[in-house]
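[job 0412] stage=complex_fold ligand=flavin-adenine dinucleotide status=START
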Amino acid sequence: MQRRHFLKMGGAGWLAGSGLLRLHPEAGAQEAPARWDVVTEVLIVGFGGAGATAAVTACKHDAEVLVLEESDRGGGITMYAGAAWLPHNPVQEANGYNDSVEEGFEYLWKTTRGQAREEVVRAFVENSYETLSELLDETGLQPGFGVWDDFQPSYPGAKNSRLVRFSCRDYFRRLHESLEARGGRVMTRTRARHLYTDPNGGVVGVRAEGANGENLNIGAGRAVILCAGGFSRNEEMKRSFFRIVPVPSVVSTGGQGDGLLMGMGAGAMLGNMKEYAPEFEGQLEDGRAFRAPYSHPHAILVDRLGRRFINESEDYPTVGTGFYGFDGARDEYRYLPAFVVIDSEGADQTGLSRQEAVIKGDDIKELADRSGIDPSRLSETVDRYNRNIKEGRDPDFLRGVSKGSRGEEPEPLEGPPFYSIRIYPRVLDTMGGLEINGKAQVLNAASGKPIPGLYAAGNNAHQALGFYYQGGGSVGNLMVFGRLAGINAAKRV
Ligand SMILES: Cc1cc2nc3c(=O)[nH]c(=O)nc-3n(C[C@H](O)[C@H](O)[C@H](O)COP(=O)(O)OP(=O)(O)OC[C@H]3O[C@@H](n4cnc5c(N)ncnc54)[C@H](O)[C@@H]3O)c2cc1C
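[job 0412] stage=complex_fold status=DONE, emitting structure tokens
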């Protein structure tokens, strides 16, 4: 097949025809132009946490670096973060805690439930130590250390010392300063649109739109690294890939999925697209958001039929998995919304009882009626739950008894009045992306082999997270794979 024809079929045209996803019209890769407007050695798309890490690392490895950033300043969703999860890291060691690559791999591999590539999980744990040492040296950050259980403490290889706390805003700012000091350049208000490829399918540059809408063809002598983040705000992509929608993003920046679409346009393989790191939003009757106290000892979480569906004391990624589910008979998502039901003691402690627009009932039946929950089912649920909790057991969801449970001992819901608040899942950030190998090279969907000249890191890539979001895992991964992408892209001559 002629290459030009293949690109037409394999790029934007094919995807549009699938009815799944409409790419912006130019995301399909195109053959390189006769002339470049700008040329560099390593070209990085996106200046968030992963992009800054890759850029500084590539500079350190003697490459000329140019970063394209769509926004005024960069930083991306990374600016909100405050911790990195890294197995076997120097901060643990400095605080007298043991860990090893083997234990880190054993734990993380189990949490992925086989939805990550083994080679990538290994690369993550094998490079955590060196990555954190090097990046702490580079940024001069002094991270906080605290004892914090891995989210699945009963899994083999789990530890309580892998979370490293620092301001990711400071991390980004200091890398930005390093990049400038090392001669790396950043073009802000410049949005990358598609990749350029050579006749062998190797990536050789990017077409971008400059600050005034001008067309810019930028050549990359060594490689392009895609670090444009995830797709937490691309509603069309979420509809294609998530199990439930809508699941809005908690933030109003980034997450457009551009880098994924660009990679797809060049034939890249995707992985783990249905998983995301969840957050939850409570919604009062006047539509205002209120932190939903679903894990409070005096609260339970129920669906609209009044049934519990998850251990409320579990970590937030596990609670997030409870929201998957479609009720075919009723033709609706079963847990959108769900309800937090809480007694007066819990509502007073969390401030919910002081909200005017809260649903309140003198007994469970009245509360259920007012909430639109099945009253007899909710009464049965609360009676059964109270009985079990008083006996110190929860045969339904193991609250307070499963090894993964955290939080205070659960209490029965007894003191009227009772309150309810709707709760909806939200996206902190997506976890799937372009499939990479252990060197952060993007893999071709047809051949499974690396696409020459194309790397990805951060949430633009599917890194070492699979089924389950380990808190801090996104920043840990963007550091490790941002650095690996920077090293390997710079080495490519
Ligand atoms: C409130 C909140 C708290 C969080 N806390 C944590 C935490 O403590 N630990 C943790 O591990 N994770 C946390 N996360 C998730 C984590 O912050 C992100 O998953 C991670 O920082 C993403 O990094 P990134 O570099 O891949 O993307 P981003 O930081 O989003 O960077 C992507 C950059 O690419 C730019 N860009 C996009 N498209 C283009 C284009 N076409 N051309 C040019 N530039 C483009 C964007 O403008 C952006 O600057 C949190 C998320 C939120 C919302």
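Residues 187 and 380 are 61 Å apart (CA to CA).
[job 0412] exit 0
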